[in-house]
Input
Amino acid sequence: MAQRIEDYGVVGDLHTAALVGRDGSIDWMCLPRFDSPACFARLLGDEDNGSWRLAPESGGLCTTRRYRPDTLILETEWETAEGRVRVIDLMPPRGEAADVVRVVEGVSGRVPVVMDLRLRFDYGSVTPWVTFRGGEVRAIAGPDAVVLHTPVEVSRHDGVLQARFEVAAGERVPFVMTYYPSHLSVPRPVHAEHALRDTADFWRSWISQIRYDGRWQDAVRRSLITLKALTYVPTGGIAAAATTSLPEELGGSRNWDYRFCWLRDAAFTLQSLLGTGFVDEAKAWREWLLRAVAGDPSDLQIMYGLDGRRRIPELTVDWLTGYEDSGPVRVGNAAAGQLQLDVWGEVLDCLHVGRGAGLASTDDAWQLQRALLNFLEGHWADLDNGLWEVRGPRRAFVHSRVMAWAGVDRAVRAVEEHGLPGPVDEWRALRARIHADVCTNGYDSRRGTFTQFYGSTGLDAALLLIPRVGFLPWDDERVVGTVDAVQRELSEDGFLLRYHTHADNRVDGLPGAEGAFLACSFWLADALHGVGRRAEAFELFERLLALRNDLGLLSEEYDVRSGRHLGNTPQAFSHVGLVNSARHLSETYDAQEAEGSRAQAPRRS
Output
């Protein structure tokens, strides 16, 4: 059985990532990129579906682990009866090929170590043909091949590559596994020690660009490194997570593939990157966005492949039982074909954010935005599936229409603030019409709150974004009432559900329930801060930070009953929420700290 979701760390090379457990086993990895079939799929099945364990022979979970400061180099240590041993895991930023480097280092004593490598291509279904050639171990199956280099002797037993050796204090034993397309020549192996040095230099150089000096420095730096690790650097796209089908409810069927790029994440991600100084990444993300959405605006999708491809059909991988028997395991995501009108607004908002930050705009980009606006003008009142990708009936979701308003508002501001050409009077009238429609039909005056959709009895955490996008000011009584209602009705031990799955006759059309959604909980911290309840905002933010695992990582959701992470991991949206909340709250917190220091300073006579 796989370990708890929070028991995994991640290493990556800006093309793909590997999940490493506390037992020293890599239980999930897709090659050559995030959305490729997995060659290690124990996470969603069992050992025979692929894993790579490198640990003391005595076994067990590690004693301690950590990332080397400001890097994505993972160090895992075990204290055993024979001594102490460390495994160093990394993936150097992609050069000629994809490399996984693992170095066993003796810290004290002399420790017996075991390596068990079970390569299983195509999500654990294909056992490769293995050959031994002059110190190399090669494994080939169809289009996929890997080569393993190590100075220790490797043998094969029942489809498992094994090694047994001892490491003494001061000794280092490297393992380098390199992936390549099987029709090409075997690539040159990286030198493990050089890769370790170069990888550390890369990450430390990258994070040195940061422009954030608030109270939560360590958490923000780790979240930004995690977001960078989820970047597909050839295109600038950012995967929502490194995994598929980790459940939103243990034993349930709410298991989705998140190895793609969601448009609605765009503006939030840009804000987090631009707000902390990472202009190059923000520009690459915006350019990916422009390429992906180019074409007929009526064909806009909510998500795209890492390279901008449109077709990501949803299939089930029936030979995998799912994480803790939470099936089915899904590959691809059928939600790509849904109508979610908020994404038009989110794309326009994203491009507005980039424009305001000085990212150069082009005539072609503005023409694309005008085409998106033309579509929005004729379709903003359509029923849709909403931002949470419900698989029930389409509705008049309030968030969708608020974001339609935001998209039109950004067009008006582009003309007013940046001098771009357009029928601004028509857009102002459309903006006012959408605003009035939402306020009339989406607000329940009896309860003093906006609702999930027109006529709904349920609420939606996305309602917290109404003031954040400028639809209403923070001090508007309708905003204050909505924040109160969402916190009261969607809270589980202080953390927020996205919505109640049982409300309105099961609005999402799916069985079961889910955990508290971490990005929404960060939105609540921002909302509490926005309406002036700053002490509560700080307290909630600190509680959210405490949910991170020992390596500073967050998944998608949290189960307050079991105290466990749920959903795909590491989740970009959660880490974006952390960075943005830290930025928003730091401004007030630092000001309060400064004011307190002045108040406590001794007065001069």
About this structure: The two ends are 70 Å apart (CA to CA). The CA atoms of residues 534 and 588 lie 8 Å apart.
